[in-house]
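Class prep. Protein, please:
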Amino acid sequence: MNLWLLDTGPVVAYFDARDSQHEQVATALESFSGKLVTTSAVIVEAMHFPGRVPSSALILVDFLLASAQKFTKSLHLKV
């Protein structure tokens, strides 16, 4: 299974059509087949961009709920 770890930049770019990376990120995410994972820190950071996109915090919450993601207290990755 493909697994991508998302950082704040791509998350914000995906929801902000004015972002210079929006098209590239949207194309990559919408064609991705696998599991997207992120951290609570990324979610908190992404919530702090409400000035860039009206209702962005609500859009992000809706996205997270619709994707039926599971949230954990910590992330342990074996490399």
